[in-house]
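Justification of resources, computational component.

The compute hours requested in this renewal are based largely on the per-chain cost of generating structure records like the one below. Each record pairs the submitted sequence with a full C-alpha cell output. That output is archived, and it is also reused by downstream analysis tasks.
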Amino acid sequence: MKFRKNMLLEVSPQRIEGIEFSKQTMLSKTINFLQKNKYYKDILDIKDFKLDIKNKNLYILVEGETVYIKMVTLPLVKKYQINDIIKNELRYYYKDIDHMAFTYKLIKEDKINMELLVFCLKGNNLDILENSIENNINLRKINLIQFCFKEYCSTKINVKSYILVFYYNSNLYFLICNNNEIVANNIVNIEELHQFEFSYLMNNFLEQYNDYVKLSEKIYYVNINALNIDELEYVSLPHQILDEVSRKELLKYIIIKG
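The structure output for this chain reads:
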C-alpha cells in the first residue's frame, strides 16, 4: 500500500506555495522542514501546480483574505439544517455566495433561538481543490491565518477583549477580539504600507469598528519590528509587543495541532 505524502499549502491572492512534510519528523527539534521538498508556483501556472498536489494529504493556510463576520440569530433547529439556513441568510448580505466558504460558532441558545457567529471567506483562491476526488486529494484542514495567529499567541494574552495587530508574509493584519472571539478584522498589503503611515491605517480601522474598540482592554503587536513603527499608543489603551513569530514556528504549530 502506497502512503500519501503530506503537503501544507500557503494560499494567498498573490501566490501559492507548498511544502511537503512528514508529521512524525515535525516533532523533532532538529528537522528543518522548510528547506525540504519546497514548491513554488505562480497562480498563472495553477494547472501545473495541481500536479504537485495530486495524491496528497493537504493542510491549507489561507492568507491575505479578510474574514467577513456576521452575528446571526436563527430559530432553534436541527444541526444538519443550520448550513442551509445560514446560506440563505448570507444571500441578503453578499451577492456572490457561490464562491464563498463559511463556518460558524454557536455563541448561545435558548428554547426558541440560537445566536451564531458566522465567519465567511471568498473562496476564489481555493479553486486548486477543483476535481479533488479525481486527483485523489485528501483535504485534512483549512486554516485561516487570523485564527492561527490568535490561537498561537493566546497563552501570552491576559485579557478577553483586545486588539491584535500582526505582520506576516507582506501583509499587516488588524483583529479585534471580544470575549476571545474575533469580531472584526482588516488586512493591509505591503503596497498600501508604502503609501500610508501606519498611524493612518490604524486610526481608520479603530474608527470603523469603534463600538468594539470601546470594549477592548489592550493592544497587542506581533512581528512589527521590521516596519519601523513609531506610534503604538491608541485610544488610551495599554499596549504590549509580543515575541516575534517566525514562519517556521507558525507552520510547525499548525501542522502539529492538526
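The radius of gyration is 20 Å. The CA atoms of residues 223 and 232 lie 13 Å apart.
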